[in-house]
Amino acid sequence: MPKDCLFCKIISGEIPSTEVYRDEEIFAFEDINPAAPTHILVIPIKHIQDISSATIEDQETMGKLLLVANKIAEDKGLTKDGFRYVINTGAYGGQTVFHLHLHILGGRSLGWPPG
Ligand code: 5GP
Ligand code: ZN
């Protein structure tokens, strides 16, 4: 793992977080600065810089990431009214932490298109 990766440090527990889900491949935790009443980040345990860097080797993990996100959305009661998944990528995408993460946003109506 890259020594200076914030999310690798969150996975290892070196930096505390509010854990929502963990298994051998996927970790999920509350966003520290929530943009919606429910704002959870779902990440692969393996350090992958961004979604563009995922390879065929990561195919199963990426599928699992989405299915874990679905389970969390269900458990948090978001499926009835709807919710949004976001994967910011690179500078124009607004990515600020370079460990691939999927945002789950829900609990209020979300605007579109993004600013
Ligand atoms: P990005 O802008 O890269 O798509 O999203 C990074 C997200 O990580 C932001 O929503 C930000 O609030 C969240 N974040 C940044 N630092 C921390 C932290 O130390 N702990 C937690 N739980 N979330 C963080
Ligand atoms: Zn990392």
Written overview of the protein:
The protein has 115 residues and is α+β, with helices and mostly antiparallel strands. The chain has a single domain, classed as HIT family, subunit A. 24% of the residues lie in helices and 22% in strands. The protein is built from 3 helices and 5 strands. Strands 1-2-3-5-4 form a 5-stranded antiparallel sheet, with helices on one face. A hairpin with a 7-residue loop joins β2 and β3. The longest helix is centred in the middle third of the chain and has 17 residues. The chain starts with 5 loop residues before the first helix and ends in a 9-residue tail after the last strand. Guanosine-5'-monophosphate (5GP) binds next to β2. Guanosine-5'-monophosphate binds next to β2.
Model regions low in confidence, pLDDT < 50 over at least 5 residues = none
Q: Radius of gyration, Cα only, in angstroms?
A: 14 Å
Do you know the CATH architecture?
Answer: 2-Layer Sandwich
N-to-C SSE string, H for helix and E for strand: HEEEHEHE
Average of the residue pLDDT scores: 97
User: Within the largest sheet, what's the order of strands?
Assistant: 1-2-3-5-4
